[in-house]
Fold:
Amino acid sequence: MENQTASSGHQATDQSELNQLRQQLQAAQQENAHLLEHRRRLMEVLNCKSPDRLEHDLRNVMNELNLLRTIVETDE
Structure:
């Protein structure tokens, strides 16, 4: 009888842990989808063809912006 009670307790704990893991997985999947959508939109704005080039292309845009700011400041 004690073994059945202990076994039931373990099953309840296991089920609770399984539910928590499922919730964590679902949250991670939602966050991943959200980040992928952000990446897609950034790629669209930068006209970037490959996710691997996104950081490089963004750095280029930032460098060009800084260069233009410097040019404008020296012209004033």
In short: The two ends are 89 Å apart (CA to CA).
